[in-house]
Known about the structure:
Shape of chain A: globular
Low-confidence stretches of chain B: 25-50, 364-394
Order of helices and strands of chain A: HHHEEEEEEEEEHHHHHHHHHHHHH
Radius of gyration of chain A: 29 Å
Number of strands of chain B: 27
Distance between the termini of chain A: 84 Å
Structural class of chain A: alpha+beta
Largest interface: A-B, 65 and 58 residues
Number of domains of chain B: 2
Strand content of chain B: 35-45%
CATH class of the largest domain in chain B: Mainly Beta
CATH superfamily of the largest domain in chain B: Cupredoxins -  blue copper proteins
Oligomer: heterodimer
Mean pLDDT of chain B: 83
Number of helices of chain A: 16
Helix content of chain B: 10-25%
Mean pLDDT of chain A: 76
Largest sheet of chain B: 6 strands, mixed
Helix content of chain A: 55-70%
CATH architecture of the largest domain in chain B: Sandwich
Largest sheet of chain A: 5 strands, antiparallel
Number of strands of chain A: 9
Amino acid sequence: MLSGDKNAKAGKHITQKAPMILAFIPIVVLAAMIIFLLSPYGQSLINTGIPLPQVTIEKVEFHENQILAFIRNTGPLEVVVSQADVNDRIQSAAVEPSSEIPRLGEAKVMIPFPWIPGTPYEIGITTSDGTRFSKSVEAAALAPSPDANQALLFTSLGVYVGVIPVMIGLMWYPYIRRISIGKYSFFLSLTAGLLVFLGIDALLEVNEIVNQNLAAVFNGQALSVLVTISSFVVLLYTSERLTQRAIERAVLNQNSHSLTSSSSVKELVKKPEKTFTQKQEGEIYSKSAKVSSSSSTQEVQIQMQRYQQLLKPLTISMMIAIGIGLHNFGEGLAIGAAMLLGEVALSTFLIVGFTLHNTTEGLAIVAPIAKIERSRRMMIRRLVMMGLIAGVPTIAGTWIGGFLYSPIAAVIFLSVGAGAIFQVVYSLISWISHHQKSGPSSSTFLSGHVIAGFITGLLIMYLTGLFV
Amino acid sequence: MPRHLLLIGLLTFIGTSIIVIGVISGVYKDFILNSSSDNSNTVISRSNNSDSSIGGHTPGYPIGDTSGTVIDPIEQVVDSQDSVVDPEKYLHEFNYGRVSTLPNGTTLREFTLVASDQLVKEVSPGVSYNVWTFNGTVPGPTIRATEGDIVRINFVNNGSMPHSLHTHGIHPAEMDGVFEMISPRGKFTYEFVAEPFGVFPYHCHMTPLEEHIAHGLYGVYIVDPKTPRPPADEMVMVMNGYDTDFDTENNFYTVNGIPYYYMHHPIQIEKDKPVRIYLVNMLEFDPLNNLHLHANMFNYYPSGTNLQPDELTDIVSLNQAERGIMEFEYKYPGKYMFHAHKTEFAEKGWMGTFFVNDKSTTTQNSSRIDNSPFYDTLNNSFVTRAPETDGGRL
């Protein structure tokens, strides 16, 4: 039929060209609906309740003869701050930039006040409808001001707490290098235990910040889950990809003269890519061997396997260093913020606690690479670099935490750290299981060594954490 | 191949250093751009820049400078359009009603009180609150009669819920305003003989009682003795509070409706001239309120029902609805404070000042807020500059 034909043609035409327009139809309808809902008519339909103002005091700082409250409008409406008080007694104050705060906007309330160090205070803000919002401070302490002295103090603190302990931990390298396979898997799983503890610790810390300092409107727990999972997935992808590319390059460099086409190598490299991380290498080898029988490709595969043996632990160590670096950044944030918020009187005892705690982090970096055959000089250089990657962020953390504390930034940083640590734990476990299988004694993942190591790792972290 | 690992490390380092540099430059920029306000964090003297200054009501108290909004009920005046009451006017305003003489020679005083519960008024600078009012103000108008007069109050309920008028004093049961509720749009005429002489509160007596009183449905009713009290500079003072966040605790305490009002508008009185204050405590939620007068003593007449003072004191404590008359005169010129000696109330708005003028030496000063010390140590004499009265401001 002619008309049917036409219809069919028209239909075909639509399937080819219309999708762009079709994609916009729901968006246009959605926009129309939002406009309707926001219009006075729509608002009168749905606004049955009375919207209440909500102000969150995110941070209180004590400066000389002055208290600063950093507030955020976390309610559904614009608010006007009309009054400030200290311990429920009205005080003269100023709001910068303005007492009118738009939704989710921030403001700084300055209250001239002769506060007394070590005394608890409650800072209150009253909005134009007479609602009062308050925040308590356990003990007032002079806020660090961003000057050279403070920066130096924070830096040295970061060095003591972050860099030096990690470096000390690295000194286990020669010992771990010489121990038996059984003991080695003990230390690998101990590392996994340490890291699992750190990851959970970071999430608990996030939860605490969310409950104490972050406005409910940010939905901190959900944000933390989102960031943790995203960082886990992204870092997992990145590390796999980096190992893969490193192997690829290495093989190419070695065989550039013996091979005519580099694409065949790439193909070969790509095929077993997915199986590398989880399956035993022997299997990969046999599977790959079936793909091609030519002697040159077999050579390539053997080399690849060698590099795999070499690079995988290096990557794991590097990822551990980065993960711990992110964690230590969070730790630095916590230390800096605690000093800023006057919640902690820093003592030598506390520094000793952090040092003990962080020394184990050095061990975590050392363990995976201890068994690789490399020249000692190169290894030391690499170790020092990874130690710095793990330790130095502590310094940056103390600065940011001490000078520019923001609960939302703290939640994000700590969650990224948690995701990074869990990624490392994942790589480490797959590495341990690989190691177990290739080892002569045991064939299962959960050997006595592994379990003992894992639990010891958790215990060490818990016990050294008691000092902090 | 180790290059790639080096690269990761390098990138991490670069990333970290970018963060660090960003932080440093951010802090630095902040510091440079806001240097004026940052410096003021520690500066305890007024700077001469265009920023406004905050604090400094009390000598030695820290002062700050700001480019932002100053929120300061101790210095700021409530917007005249939205103010819950004009304390300047309220202080001296006595309503004697529409006066007529009945055939038997008795004086009839007619008043009209309109109850309302819909107004949103400014109770402290920038803070609005749904007040329930008699004739649109908190406290309501002061009603005054002489012992033996007939008081007729035409009560109109302009609100959205039942209200009534309960007056303290002696009167028949049906004039007590407790069991006869006046519905919205309803009217009622209360009529009774003014007795005995004294000072009384009046208020709404509908339930929930606490709600009706705490929102502002109250005022003062004065009955003068047949032989008038000696002439004096008379004023009325009602001590009250506002619970603006409904947690059954007052957020503000005041005398005559606006916190701190008489701090920036001192009550002008004259040296050696008798002052008489009709004082009523209408505070809800807190069990006790008081008034302490500085640098002076006053004669106190509890409930104002006696012509002989009970005691000479400088403080009187009053429970809910308790009241009395204070009489005093100042011997020396200058600025004197009066406030609740319950310091919490004082620091939440219940404080004020008298400015005692010495007519022989008074010079006027144009500054509204007088921050100078009370005693001029250089000239070894009291500072007698009087702040501008600013009566027309509200």
